[in-house]
Specification:
Radius of gyration: 24 Å
EC number: 3.2.1.51
Enzyme class: hydrolase
Shape: globular
Oligomer: single chain
Low-confidence stretches: 1-17
Largest sheet: 7 strands, parallel
CATH superfamily of the largest domain: Glycosidases
Keywords: Glycoprotein, Glycosidase, Hydrolase, Signal
Domain Glycoside hydrolase family 29 N-terminal: 12-351
CATH class of the largest domain: Alpha Beta
Helix content: 25-40%
Distance between the termini: 58 Å
Order of helices and strands: HHHEHHHEHEHHEHHEEHEHEEEEEEE
Strand order of the largest sheet: 5-4-3-2-1-7-6
CATH architecture of the largest domain: Alpha-Beta Barrel
Protein name: Putative alpha-L-fucosidase
Length: 454
C-alpha cells in the first residue's frame, strides 16, 4: 500500500497533536524542545561518585588503573595494599558533610537555572537505592543514604531551579555488558535487564526535567534501544511534557539527533549552530571529578569562566558548568568562589544572558573579545576586556545606528545614564565612550545594552 505525501504529512501532524511519538528519529526529533531549557541558559553539572574517594587523576580512575596506566598504578602501589580493589573505596565514600540544602543555596546564588547530578557514572555505582544495582549503590554501601533523592528534594523545595540527571548507559566492568560486547552487540541482556529498567526507575521515582545520557559510544542506538525508550519517555512517562534530552544515545547519534546536542565534552564551536546545543565544561580543566592533586593554574579563573559563558550563549548554546564534590560531600572553596563570582556577575548582567537569543552577528568584526546576544529589538554587547583609553570600537553594530536612528547605549551596572556612542564616518566603526571604571558595578566583563531608536 502506498500513501500520498499530503497523507503522510497529515499523519505526522496528527501524531504530534496527540502527543504520540514513534520510535524513529524523524518522529522523535519533531518533538519541540521544552522552552524552559533554552530560556535557562546556565546549568550546574555535578560529577560525584566512588571516584571521589581516590580523587586522583580523573573520574576514570578505575578504568585507567585497570588499563595499567602508570600514574594510577604507582598511586595504588604507593598508598594501598596489594589486594585492595576498587570496590573497597566505596566504604570511604561517606558524604558525612553532605548538606543538600547548602548545595541548593549555592547553586541558586550562582545564577544557574538548572542542576544535573550524575545518577550513575561509568563505574556503575548508583547514587540512589536502585533495585537494579544490588550492593553497589549509595544506600547499600558508603553513605547509606539516597544522595540523589535528598538533592532533588532540596532543590525543588528551596529554589526555582530545574533538576536533572546524568546517566551512563554503559558500565566498564559489568559482566552482562562485557558479554554483549563480546557478542559484537548482537545480544542485549545488559540493556534489557539493567539499563532500560534502571532508567525507567529513575524517571518514575525522581521525575527529572533533564535526562542527560552518556556512555553510548561503543554501540549503535539499536543496541541501546534508545528509540523505544525515548518514545516511552515522550509519550507515557510522568515527565513527558517537560523533560529535555541530549544526543548521546548511540555511537551513530551524537550531534545528529536528540533534544539538544552536546557533540563532545567542552564543545564550544565559536559560531552559531542551527540546532540547540550545550557546552558541558569543567572549572577544573583536566577532570570532571574532584582531584586532590590539582594545581591552582589547572582551574578556570572567573574571567575565563565568564568568557566561556559569553561565547556559548552568543552562539545559541547553553552552558553546563561542572564541579566535582569531595567524598565527604563538600564543594571545595575554590569551586564555591567561582560559582559565587558568576552569580554576582549574572545578578548585574543577566539580562544579556537569560531568555536571550543569538543576534545576526556573534562576535564583533573589529574588536576581539566582544560577543553579542539579543532580545529584539535590544542588542547586548558583552565586552570581555575594558577598552584602552575608555573608548570601544565596534565593527558590527553600525546597522543599529543607521537611518538617523536615535540609538541609546547604556552599560548594565552603571547608574550614570547613557553612554556617548557615534559612528566614525571614516571607518564606519561605532565608538562607545565608557564611563569611569570606578563607577561601574560589574567586574570581569561588561555589557552594553544597545536600544535602537525609531
Amino acid at each position: 500500500m502506498s500513501f500520498s505525501v499530503p497523507f503522510l504529512l497529515l499523519s505526522c501532524a496528527l501524531t504530534q497533536v496527540l502527543g504520540q511519538y514513534e520510535p524513529t528519529w524523524e518522529s522523535l526529533d519533531s518533538r519541540p524542545l521544552p522552552d524552559w531549557y533554552d530560556k535557562a541558559k546556565v546549568g550546574i553539572f555535578l560529577h560525584w561518585g566512588v571516584y571521589s574517594v581516590p580523587s586522583f587523576g580523573s573520574e576514570w580512575f578505575w578504568k585507567f588503573w585497570q588499563d595499567e596506566e602508570e600514574p594510577y598504578v604507582n598511586f595504588m602501589q604507593d598508598n594501598y595494599p596489594p589486594d585492595f580493589t576498587y570496590q573497597d573505596f566505596a566504604k570511604d565514600f561517606t558524604a558525612e558533610f553532605y548538606d543538600p540544602e547548602q548545595w541548593a543555596d549555592l547553586f541558586a546564588k550562582s545564577g544557574a537555572k538548572y542542576v544535573i547530578l550524575t545518577s550513575k557514572h561509568h563505574e556503575g555505582y548508583a547514587m540512589w537505592p536502585s533495585k537494579y544495582s544490588y550492593s553497589w549503590n549509595a544506600n547499600d554501601v558508603g553513605p547509606n543514604r539516597d544522595l540523589l533523592g535528598e538533592l532533588a528534594d532540596a532543590i525543588r523545595n528551596s529554589t526555582d531551579l530545574h533538576f536533572g540527571l546524568y546517566h551512563s548507559l554503559f558500565e566498564w566492568f559489568h559482566p552482562l555488558y562485557d558479554s554483549d560486547r563480546d557478542n559484537n552487540f548482537t545480544t542485549s541482556e545488559f540493556v534489557d535487564y539493567k539499563i532500560i529498567p534502571e532508567m525507567k526507575e529513575l524517571v518514575e521515582t525522581y521525575e527529572p526535567e533533564v535526562l542527560w545520557s552518556d556512555g553510548d559510544g561503543e554501540a549503535l542506538d539499536t543496541y541501546w534501544k534508545s528509540l523505544e525508550f525515548l518514545a516511552w519517555l515522550y509519550n507515557e512517562s510522568p515527565v513527558k511534557d517537560f523533560v529535555v534530552t541530549n544526543d548521546r544515545w548511540g555511537s551513530n547519534v551524537g550531534c545528529k539527533h536528540g533534544g539538544f546536542y552536546t557533540c563532545a565534552d567542552r564543545y564550544n564551536p565559536g559560531h552559531l549552530l542551527p540546532h540547540k546545543w550545550e557546552n558541558c565544561m569543567t572549572i577544573d580543566k583536566k577532570s570532571w571529578g574532584y582531584r586532590r592533586n590539582a594545581d591552582l593554574d589547572e582551574f578556570l579563573t572567573t574571567h575565563e569562566l565568564i568568557t566561556t559563558l559569553a561565547e556559548t550563549i552568543s552562539c545559541g548554546g547553553n552552558i553546563l558548568i561542572n564541579v566535582g564534590p569531595t567524598k565527604a560531600g563538600t564543594i571545595i572553596p575554590l569551586f564555591q568562589e567561582r560559582l559565587l563570582d558568576l552569580g554576582t556577575w549574572l545578578s548585574i548582567n543577566g539580562d544579556a544572558i537569560y531568555e536571550s537569543s543569538a543576534w545576526s552577528v556573534q562576535n564583533d568584526s573589529f574588536t576581539s573579545g566582544v560577543w553579542y546576544t539579543a532580545k529584539d529589538p535590544v542588542v547586548y554587547a558583552i565586552v570581555l576586556n575594558w577598552p584602552i583609553d575608555n573608548v570601544l570600537y565596534l565593527g558590527s553594530a553600525k546597522s543599529l545606528f543607521d537611518n538617523g536612528k536615535t540609538t541609546q547605549v547604556t552599560m548594565l551596572g552603571n547608574e550614570n545614564g547613557d553612554l556617548e556612542a557615534e559612528v566614525v564616518d571614516t571607518t564606519n566603526l561605532v565608538a562607545v565612550t565608557f564611563p569611569d571604571r570606578a563607577s561601574v558595578e560589574s567586574e570581569w566583563a561588561w555589557v552594553l545594552k544597545i536600544t535602537p531608536g525609531s
